[in-house]
Amino acid sequence: MIVPLTSKKLGEIYRYETRTFVDSKHGKALIDQIKTVDKKRLIEKLGQLTEKEMDAIHEKLFSIFDLWEYLKKRELV
Q: pTM for the full model?
């Protein structure tokens, strides 16, 4: 799965977006636009997110898919 990043329209961060800083550029992750792609289609690595940015993305993914509730029901959290 990939989460698209953009460096446009940074003024407002919506519920399923989080700020990023990749390759010396401010941007945001568009978490509500996740996609699945074959690894073969990924040509080159453009940069890397920090652990803090990845944690923010994971939190929002859990929220989108209501995984917190799923884990609570199974007493995994």
A: 0.79
